[in-house]
Each structure stands twice: as structure tokens, then as C-alpha cells.
Specification:
Helix content is 14%, strand content 40%. With 368 residues, it is mainly beta. A hairpin with a 5-residue loop joins strand 13 (236-240) and strand 14.
Length: 368
């Protein structure tokens, strides 16, 4: 009795919905005469029904990947503003690379020098000054080859002597002091992106001179909000280049941005509406692979997840159950049975499955 109750319970729970199995079962009944009046075959059944397709339960590694369009870029830009008043006498051209110790621009024909550091210049450095900004400047002075002073937080007479030598080499007045408007700090080399002023312009402190960017190119991809699973910082990706080559990349930044949608679907009267995107920045370690491509379009293959050594079946083998969830039709010779299963990762037309009694090599029905 207990076995009979269990069979009735399973049959009562499993209902196949719109996957073609009911049609196959009806055809089998018609061909064998089961359930027909008189017990004989249906005289209208001239041929047996087409056999149902089957597939094997396989064990494999599932990888959830998705390819999205992206573009090469020099990344976010910053703005260089004048700290001195005067006349602009020289500006670098767009695309120029400026390194430590070089003139970023000239005012009244005197250079403003690029140095490396995270702290902006905010005061005049002179003998007796002490602080992190002093150490940052002295580190740069030493990196440029000037000696005779100790790199620390104190601006000494020895530091002033080295500063005079540096000023002489630049064609500046040898004061031994460092004016904040005479230096500009950046994290490293910078690339001039665009000019906001021109030679001959009269400057006021705070006026924009140029925009700058990193010297390394990155890949920018803008994902829809439903693809958040792809935007994992530090995850590796594959960048497919327009020249047919591929290069590895790494996600270095993800942020949510609002973009204007000018498709005319907005409700604000102007035809514009904000569309939220995930902006993904990808670094490319081997910059040589990007030579000659400038700001070309690329394709980026993201890997959202991976499951190793799991059981899989074709997605088309899944049967919807009336109580929710999915099942599989197990085919064993001429006998079949329905088993409830749990699904996991979906990828490339297959799905990860698990359930009691489910094993590699089993045959499952694939409704047509």
C-alpha cells in the first residue's frame, strides 16, 4: 500500500505543460489500442507516431559568458587650471605626453613644471617649511637627479641650494623657494586630451587650460542594469580587437551612470530621458596590442560564473511542473518516468541539473 500511495502522489503532482509530451503519449495510446473501445488498435492509425528525441545527461564545466561591445579610450579626463595670472605663451598639443620635470605649459614664457604626487601644491615652500608636501617635492627633486639634501619633511638650507640649481636649469629666477603656481602634481605621466585655452590668452588663476588623461588606453563598456553579474571588479575578460587579435583585460572600475536617451520616448516634453547604465573600465596590460587602433570599437567577453563537473542537459529537455519548478523525463528502454529536478547555471543551450537518482549517462526525453 505504501508503494501504491507513493506512485499516486507522484502522478498527481507532475503535470507536463506545453512541452509536447502529452501529444507523444496520446500517439502511443492510439498505436497500441490502450484505452480505446474494444481494446484493438485504432484503424485510423496507419503509421506509428514519430519517436521522441532524446539526449544524454552529461557531466561538464559550465561557464556563463556574454560578449558586449566596447570602445578603446584613454579613460576619464581631468582638468588643469592656471594657478598664475599672465599671458599663455606655450601649450602642448593634443595627444602630447608630458613626463616629470617637463614644462606642462608656459605663462609669460616661464614654465610650469609637472611633478608626480597626490597632494596638490598649496603654499610656497621655503627654508623652515615642514610637512608631507615638502617630502613630496624633495622626492621629485631627487628623482630628477639633484643631490646634497636629505629627503624628509623639512625644507632646509641644503634643499634651497638644490632648488636654486633646479631653477637655473629651467631658466627661472634662483630664489631657492618653490611657488605653488610653478609646479603641477599628477599621479604620473599625463596625456594632453584637449585644449581649453590658446597661446596669447590672458590668464586668471583658476581658469581652465587643458584636459588631461592617462597615457594608457582602457576599454569602456556600458552594460544594462540586468547585466550587473558581469560587472565584477578585478575579474578578467577577453578583449577581441578589430585586427582579429585578442588580449586579456581586467575590470578596474565599475560605476552607475545616467545617460540621456534622445530616442523621443521621454515624457519630459523634450524627448530626452535618463537611462541608467553600468560603466565598466577595463585595463589592458599589454598596451602594445593596441598600437594603431586609437579609439576603435572592440568586443569584450565577460565570464559571469563557472561551475565545474556538474550534470547538464539541453534546456529544451526541461518540463514545467504544475506545482512549480522543473522535471525531466527519464527514458529507460521502453519505459519512462518523470523526476523533479533543480536547475542551476544556464549556458550555451544547456542547464545545470541536480536531483535524487540523477546520474551521468542517463537518457532524457526532449519534447519537440
Amino acid at each position: 500500500m505504501s508503494g501504491s500511495r507513493r506512485r499516486r502522489h507522484r502522478t498527481g503532482k507532475v503535470v507536463l505543460v506545453a512541452f509536447g509530451v502529452l501529444a507523444v503519449a496520446a500517439g502511443v495510446l492510439a498505436a497500441t489500442g490502450i484505452g480505446l473501445p474494444g481494446g484493438g488498435p485504432d484503424p485510423a492509425a496507419k503509421e506509428p507516431p514519430t519517436a521522441q528525441a532524446t539526449a544524454q545527461v552529461t557531466k561538464q564545466t559550465m561557464v556563463d559568458t556574454k560578449t558586449e561591445n566596447g570602445s578603446l579610450s584613454y579613460g576619464d579626463t581631468g582638468t588643469v587650471k592656471a594657478a598664475l595670472g599672465g599671458t599663455v605663451t606655450r601649450l602642448p598639443g593634443p595627444g602630447s605626453i608630458v613626463a616629470r620635470g617637463s614644462a606642462l605649459y608656459k605663462v609669460d614664457n616661464k614654465p610650469v613644471i609637472l611633478l608626480y604626487g597626490s597632494m596638490p601644491a598649496y603654499r610656497t615652500l621655503t627654508v623652515g617649511a615642514e610637512g608631507d608636501d615638502v617630502k613630496q617635492f624633495e622626492e621629485n627633486l631627487a628623482a630628477l637627479g639633484y643631490t646634497g639634501f636629505k629627503v624628509d619633511k623639512l625644507f632646509t638650507d641644503a634643499t634651497a641650494t638644490a632648488v636654486k640649481a633646479w631653477q637655473e636649469d629651467l631658466g627661472l629666477d634662483k630664489t631657492g623657494q618653490v611657488e605653488p603656481g610653478r609646479i603641477f602634481y599628477a599621479d604620473g605621466q599625463i596625456r594632453v586630451d584637449d585644449l581649453k585655452a590658446a597661446a596669447g590668452d590672458m590668464l586668471q588663476p583658476g581658469q581652465e587650460l587643458l584636459t588631461d588623461s592617462s597615457t594608457s588606453r582602457v576599454v569602456i563598456v556600458k552594460l544594462g542594469m540586468d547585466d550587473q553579474r558581469l560587472a565584477k571588479k578585478d575579474a578578467t575578460v577577453t578583449v577581441d580587437l578589430p585586427n582579429g587579435k585578442s588580449t586579456p583585460g581586467k575590470i578596474t572600475d565599475t560605476r552607475t551612470v545616467a545617460e540621456s536617451d534622445s530616442s523621443g520616448s521621454g515624457t519630459g516634453g523634450s524627448g530626452d530621458s535618463a537611462k541608467t547604465k553600468i560603466k565598466v573600465t577595463i585595463s589592458v596590460e599589454d598596451q602594445s596590442t593596441l598600437e594603431g587602433l586609437d579609439e576603435a570599437s572592440v568586443e569584450v567577453a565577460f565570464t559571469a560564473g563557472q561551475r565545474e563537473n556538474v550534470l547538464t542537459v539541453p534546456v529544451s529537455a526541461l518540463l514545467a511542473l504544475s506545482e512549480g519548478g522543473y522535471g525531466l523525463q527519464i527514458v529507460d528502454g521502453t519505459a519512462t518516468r518523470i523526476v523533479a529536478i533543480k536547475t542551476g547555471m544556464f549556458a550555451r543551450g544547456r542547464v545545470e541539473v541536480s536531483g535524487d537518482g540523477l546520474a551521468e549517462g542517463m537518457t532524457v526525453g526532449v519534447p519537440s
